[in-house]
Write a structure and sequence with these properties.
5 helices, three-stranded antiparallel β-sheet, 36% helix, 28% strand, elongated, single chain, five-stranded antiparallel β-sheet, 174 residues, alpha+beta
Length: 174
């Protein structure tokens, strides 16, 4: 394909006065290696819209979660997430290394994405925990490896226990 396209692009560039850079960009777009172009000046809204489109086209990775924050987009490894907490219409991810990252997303949208992974469980209306980062639990509380104490609702108790033991002894929840 390059043998046919390159002379054609060269002719178009010569005929219309395009620079060599535009020739190479045009060649990439013809073979499908370009998602979109942003022309200067780049607005934040246009960039954000293109990143949203691109992230929706990407196949979901099973070992990471891409979230939108006030600083841009972050890819979090699921194993690094200790628990997620709903706070003021946003979600705060508490990580194993002690960092907290606030996502500008609703808890419901994050909950739906984390539910697809067998190691996360919604133990309370405001919390979703990584079953592999739990130190211990009792009737009313879950204590994470970091020492954080997460409430366990009565209505979730049995489902939590089933999920916890399945994750520990069967390698995941079914």
């Amino acid at each position: 394909l390059g043998g046919v396209v390159a002379p054609l692009l060269g002719w178009i560039a010569d005929h219309y006065g395009m620079a060599a850079t535009f020739q190479s960009l045009a060649a990439l777009s013809v073979v499908g290696a370009v998602f979109a172009y942003l022309l200067k000046p780049v607005t934040y809204e246009r960039l954000a819209r293109l990143l949203d489109e691109l992230s929706s086209m990407r196949p979901a990775a099973t070992d990471e979660l891409v979230i939108k924050t006030s600083f841009g987009y972050h890819a979090l490894r699921l194993s690094d997430i200790e628990y997620a907490e709903a706070r003021n219409k946003h979600v705060v991810f508490h990580l194993r290394d002690g960092r907290d990252i606030e996502a500008l997303e609703s808890f419901r949208s994050v909950e739906d994405r984390l539910e697809q992974n067998a190691v996360f469980f919604k133990c309370h209306r405001s919390y979703q925990v990584n079953l592999r980062n739990i130190d211990h639990f009792d009737r009313t509380d879950i204590v994470m490896r970091s020492g954080a104490c997460i409430p366990l609702s009565r209505s979730c108790k049995q489902g939590f226990q089933d999920a916890y033991f399945a994750a520990r002894f069967e390698g995941g929840r079914h």
